[in-house]
Protein: histidine kinase
Organism: Deefgea chitinilytica
Amino acid sequence: MFNAVWQSIRLFGQRARAMSTPHWLERILPSRLLSRLLWVMTIGVLTSQLIGNAIWANYLQNKSEQEVSAAADHIARGAVSAVEYFQSLPPNYRPLVIQQLREMGGTRFFVNVNDSPVGIKGISSNPLPDKVFTVIRHVFEQELPRLGSVKIDFAWPNELVVASDGMTVAQLPDHWVKNTLLMEARPAPVLVIQTEIEPGHWLYLATLMPDPYFLDNSNPMPPERWLLQFATLITVMLLSWVVVRWITRPLAALSEAAEAFGKGESPHLPAEGSEEFIRTANAFGAMRERIQRYLEDREKLFTAISHDLRTPITRLKLRTEMLDDEDLRLEFHEDLDELDMMVKGALQSVKDSDIHENRTRIRLDAMIGRMVKDAKMAGHAIAFSRCGLWVMAKPLALKRALSNLIDNALFYGQQVQISVLEGVGKVVIIVRDHGPGVPEDALSTLFDPYVRLEHGRHSNSHGHGLGLGIARNIIQAHGGELVLSNHPDGGLQAMITLPRD
């Protein structure tokens, strides 16, 4: 009964997972609930942060481009006015006007006239400066369509050349540029516009953007913002870990209690924690008590039935001896023997599956070695290699399960090989015979009560067909698994998987 309840719980959990989670996602997700919740929380927070940052970065970028476009349009129109003004002046007046502008402290533009365009060492390519260039060119094409070529660049002031002879801004008097360009403290990029107002005369205009440090807005997600996002993620993960662990700890206790109950133990769940868990613990305790009472009543019922049936079966056998018809007497004897066998088999199945004993640490070499020695003394061919492994189990119950498997292998295969392997957190015991094997379609029925195949009836006519079912119930009560399969080289193979101690 313990095994049936535990198997039902496991089957329900497997079906629920199969219905609620796609197979591909099930392979990705961790197995533990705590890890799953943290994994989902991490993915959720990261996704929300990435989406939020993308929206915010797009908003900031659009806003920066709009502001830069408006500023570039304003500067372009001022530059167009300056070009038109200097175009209207006679060539010999232009140096005088420029000198007066410099002595007055300059205007919006630093102005110079050169006989050829000056080579400018521009700044690295960037979307915002490219936007400025596009807007200025568009304004010049609209306002001065007949103007010659226009050269536009951004340069840092410490590398800015202002004249054809190579003179730089740093060589100019301070009062010429102090009101136009930022040279000290935190220099800002300088916008340079050069246009040919007439052959051999290039007007040089240099100025700052309304927001001199507009390049700071070219990266809407600076490292400081990423650091803030990372700190937010770590904080959320820590809080989530605390909350999830607080929630899953009672579930882990419930899972351990259910697993222990499935192995025949009587675990106790503390009635503390959230209201939902207390109700669950109380319901689990009530279910455990009902199942235990049912098991006790079942054992008493089978014992009483076995005892009560033996007497009338014996009486019927005695009365059968008084029958004169020999054939009829033999038929009655066969029916009564079969009925007696079924009663004994049912009682044996109950008693062998519910052996009441405590778990202890068992050395498999000693237990299996004694059974192998007894089989060899009886003249059987059996081989076993020592493994040095231990398991936590009920000694009599585990010995009963192994004995049933070894006896079946000896009856039906004559030659038996036993091997014990160590896995990750488990021990695997393999009992292989060298018999004819079992048809594949009959493997699933071998654990059913009173199921015996044709060759089995000839090899062991006194069997009941209960040994494999009893062995599987005992192994499952230990939290393990028993699987039957045909060996590739012939014969039947029984593989027992038990948890390590």
